[in-house]
Amino acid sequence: MVLIVDELARMRMFAAGVYAGLTVSSIYAFSIFAAHLRDKYKMSQSDITMISTVGNCFSYFNFPTGMLFDYAGPMVVLPIAGACALLGFSLFGLTFSGVINTPSATYFALYNAILYFGCGSMDVSTIMPLMLQFPLDRGYTVLAAKTTSGLGTAVLMAYFNGWFRHPTSENTSDNNYAGFAYFVGAQIMFIALLALCIVRLPAYFPCAWRRRRLTEAEQEERRATLSLYMRQPASPRRLGTAVGLVLTLLVFLTTQSIATAYIKVTHGVRVAISVIALLLMVAFSVVALPFQVLGRYTPVRATSMNTIGEVVEENACPDTAGGDEAPAPAPAPTPPPQYR
């Protein structure tokens, strides 16, 4: 049996990690809510600062999530993170829509703490699997995921201006803040469930719960797969496509932010900007499509180990134009001494 790393499987994880970066930046949606809190609920600047500070503290308090990740892996952390973020944004939405009719700075701080904790936990549960799945290309994967998390604020602002801001009124009370809160919460939950179906730790690095249930022979077999990762880099063409999309997103969002800050634009222009931002985000899924022209990959049959596949056609010779080289499939050799 000839084993190699399933390239498409880990590229799907890469795309999910990029989308998770967008959810991490959702914590900055509070800056969109701030004007509404001042105008409608008469919150002072000290109240808004307190609410934001409480949220930031819980965003940085990811130690419990990290412990849970080490013990049970991303499949346990992801639904918890998504549920917390959805709950936090839903509470904001229910308050903005009047269902919760006792708004106060204390309540808003509690909502913010819940959603910030969920968004921070999404980061923990996706960035580490990416680094482990791409040991030879960590720089590119982290660049794409973390740059997206930084640009996510501008993406969310584009969504808000295009779909939830009032077309003509400059009064903040006319904007659909409740709908925006529900939208962001649902988006985070959807991405969390998507990542739950896709993101896995590599076979050579099982979580503590899984490791305790493996026999010594199974652990040795899994540790041996590290050498497959260390001699099979990711497709340069697919990674290059992802980096190109990141740069395109960076240029587009920077340009539109500066332009709309100094030029009065129509509602139609704002909608167009939001649609372009959405399409650019959706385009990241292209890197995981099963087309050889996007980057060389070898068809594999699934095995009992995550992202490790058995070669289906050993003599297949797909297109390698563009600098992609076929991985050298071979039985997993004995692992290096430090991993025995």
TrEMBL record:
- Report the PANTHER family cross-referenced here: NODULIN-LIKE DOMAIN-CONTAINING PROTEIN (PTHR21576:SF46), UNCHARACTERIZED NODULIN-LIKE PROTEIN (PTHR21576)
Q: Where is this region: Disordered?
A: 316-340
Composition bias (Pro residues) maps to 328-340
Q: Membrane: is it a keyword of this entry?
A: yes
Q: Which GO terms describe its cellular component?
A: membrane
Query: Looking at the keywords, is Transmembrane helix present?
Result: yes
Against InterPro entries, the record matches this protein to: MFS_trans_sf
Q: What is this protein called?
A: Nodulin-like domain-containing protein
Q: Give membrane topology per the record.
A: Multi-pass membrane protein
**Membrane spanning residue stretches:** 12-35, 76-96, 108-128, 140-160, 180-203, 239-263, 269-291
Keyword list (alphabetical) reads: Membrane, Transmembrane, Transmembrane helix
Specify the species.
Trypanosoma vivax (strain Y486)
Where found in the cell?
Answer: Membrane
Principal location class: membrane
Feature: compositional bias, Low complexity: 318-327
Highest taxon in the source lineage: Eukaryota
